[in-house]
Design goal:
Layout lengths: L12 H13 L6 E2 L15 E6 L4 E5 L5 E2 L4 H13 L20 H5 L10 H15 L2 H13 L5 E2 L1 H9 L2 H12 L7 H12 L1 E3 L1 H12 L13 H14 L5 H7 L4 E3 L4 E6 L3 E6 L2 E2 L6 H14 L5
Helix pairs in contact: 1-12, 2-4, 2-5, 2-10, 4-7, 4-8, 5-8, 5-9, 6-8, 7-8
This protein binds 6-diazenyl-5-OXO-L-norleucine.
Length: 313
């Protein structure tokens, strides 16, 4: 049933979030917490939170929406945004913008495609983005962290050093990707620096509340929380387009089918989704499906857009 209010009335956001939480509850027992990064394996598979931040500054939440979790690949949304804001279109010389149809940590396409990763959200592409952000700012992870702090208003938001060390200690695939990209001349910084800063931004701990607030600039067509402009409306539209086509890896089609919004997932179980012109959402549940997307978060976002009738389609 749709609960979209008549024009002029404030939508019943708490009711929509309640509906989403109920849908997430029905997924209890499904999926598995990521364990290829050992520090993530300790997450509670039954935790669930969801937040919504409107373009006007209202924030709503349900469940564990203020509990920090490992943002992982959700950070790639912000590293890409900052690279575009600092350097514009140059990034597209080093990374493509087509869906990969392969797992997020796959190496196979790089060989045939001359070290130019398919898109900025698979690990290979995110390493190139981190490299360029490192060149532009001197500290790619610090730039992502500071952006998240400013948009969320949480000055203590930071990298979790235990998770970062765990990633680095089990990062053979990422190291292989980075060396292969470097062999093709597509990194500006030393491989060790790029990997270190990549792990540091993936290992940032933030809550659904923080991430919904930080993602809001994409719903506001490029405007930040303080009213300043991070990027043009056209650039924000382009990020939303790449989120829609590539943000959920080789399940981007399934995510569009079920949720119908631009979104970015991470193996910590978080998903940020954008309702352009209206709000940013973040849903979180640590148990993942086989592709690496949160079972509960996808179910919650699916229920939210079904009940509200809001999607980009
Ligand atoms: O590099 C990795 O494997 C992790 N730091 C991030 C992967 C991730 O979140 C992919 N998400 N579905």
């Amino acid at each position: 049933m749709q609960t979209t209010p008549a024009p002029g009335l404030t939508p019943d956001y708490p009711e929509l979030l309640h509906t989403a939480r109920e849908a997430a509850r029905e997924t209890a027992g499904q999926g598995r917490v990521a364990d290829y990064i050992p520090a993530l394996a300790t997450a509670d598979p039954d935790a669930f939170g969801m937040a919504l931040a409107t373009v006007d500054g209202e924030v709503y939440g349900v469940g564990d929406w203020e509990q920090p979790f490992s943002i992982q690949s959700v950070s790639k949304l912000f590293s890409l945004a900052l690279v575009l804001a600092h350097g514009g279109d140059r990034i597209w010389r080093g990374v493509g913008r087509e869906p990969s149809g392969n797992p997020f940590n796959s190496l196979v396409q790089l060989e045939n495609e001359h070290g130019i990763p398919r898109n900025p959200f698979i690990n290979a592409g995110a390493l190139v983005v981190t490299d360029r952000l490192q060149s532009m700012t001197g500290d790619a992870a610090g730039a992502v962290r500071d952006f998240l702090r400013q948009e969320s208003g949480d000055p203590l938001l930071d990298t979790d050093p235990v998770v970062a060390a765990s990633e680095a200690g089990h990062g053979h695939r990422n190291a292989a990707l980075a060396h292969f990209i470097a062999a093709h001349g597509n990194l500006e910084n030393p491989v060790e620096t790029v990997l270190d800063r990549y792990y540091a931004h993936c290992s940032i701990a933030a809550s659904c509340r923080d991430l919904a607030l930080a993602g809001r600039f994409l719903a506001r067509h490029g405007l930040r929380a303080d009213g300043s402009r991070l990027m043009t409306g056209s650039e924000a539209k382009r990020i939303n387009a790449v989120l829609l086509t590539c943000g959920a890896y080789d399940a981007a089609g399934e995510f569009a089918f079920r949720v119908g919004l631009p979104g970015k997932s991470g193996v910590g179980g978080g998903i940020v989704a954008i309702l352009p012109g209206r709000a940013a959402l973040c849903a979180w549940g640590p148990a993942l499906d086989a592709v690496g997307n949160s079972v509960a978060a996808v179910a919650a976002l699916d229920a939210f857009t079904t009940a509200s009738g809001w999607s980009v389609f």
